[in-house]
Design goal:
The protein has one domain: HAD superfamily/HAD-like (Rossmann fold, 3-Layer(aba) Sandwich). Helix 1 packs parallel to helix 5. It is globular. Helices cover 22% and strands 23% of the residues. A 6-stranded parallel beta sheet has the order 5-4-3-6-7-8. By secondary structure, the protein is an alpha/beta fold. The chain starts with a strand and ends in a 6-residue tail after the last strand.
Length: 240
């Protein structure tokens, strides 16, 4: 496969249950921008409520980074059983396409899950994190992977001590976007990252909520984590 982001369906031959996920084929040192979904995008607490309002300018900021050539990575500590509803919410509000990471089942340490996933991208797949967005609870996650305060962008309420550990977007995403678009505010992705042919559209119909007889889940990970000579016909997993 050439560089890009591909939708993949793996079907169990016996009972026809299936697993849907996104397969990213990326060159070494691909630059990414990470967005934590909960709290940073929504004006309310949960993305699983009745159409929570999106923070003004959030979609435009994500699209700005995508148009500069960065691979967009969305992370959440929510279990993968909620993936259809969350992806549908992202699609409904026209968020740009990207990798989405969910916790594997119910997690007692959602922040730990986020840190492990991002560290895996960096250490196992050579991905470079250029910037990361979230709420105050995500500061410890981003600091633990070595990001500097000027790479960590936080929205919402933040304590005074966190002001020294991150860049707080006091005036919201709209003002932040204006800063990014000003001279020297942001740069195009460097190296081979521009070769990643990420779809310019949003999540589209693949993220809509539809009833299926088969059990489904969405997993996103880079191509190098697939086993050699993998096939769409596989043994039935212990749990779907």
């Amino acid at each position: 496969l050439s560089y890009g982001l591909y939708p993949v369906k793996m079907v169990v031959r016996g009972d026809h249950t299936s697993v849907d996920f996104s397969l990213a084929v990326v060159p070494p040192r691909t630059e990414c921008v990470v967005f934590s979904i909960d709290g940073s995008f929504t004006a309310s607490v949960s993305v699983t409520g009745r159409d929570p309002k999106v923070r003004a300018g959030a979609v435009d900021v994500v699209r700005h980074w995508q148009e500069l050539g960065y691979l967009i990575v969305y992370i959440t500590g929510r279990p993968d059983m909620q993936q259809q509803r969350v992806l549908a919410w992202l699609a409904q509000h026209n968020f740009p396409h990207g990798l989405v990471s969910f916790a594997d089942g119910l997690s007692t340490d959602p922040l730990g899950h986020k840190a492990v996933y991002i560290k895996s991208l960096m250490q196992d797949h050579g991905v470079l994190i250029h910037a990361a967005y979230g709420s105050s609870k995500d500061i410890s996650v981003y600091s633990s992977i070595g990001l500097r305060p000027n790479q960590i962008f936080i929205v919402g309420k933040v304590s005074k001590k966190h002001h020294q550990q991150s860049t707080v977007l006091m005036e919201g995403y709209a003002a932040h976007l204006a800063s990014l678009m000003s001279h020297g505010g942001s740069r195009p992705a460097q190296g081979n990252a521009r070769m990643v042919l990420v779809p310019r559209s949003g999540f589209g119909h693949s993220a809509s909520i539809r009833r299926r007889r088969s059990a489904k889940r969405t997993i996103s990970f880079p191509a190098s984590s697939l086993p050699p000579n993998y096939t769409s016909e596989m043994k039935k997993p212990d749990r779907l």
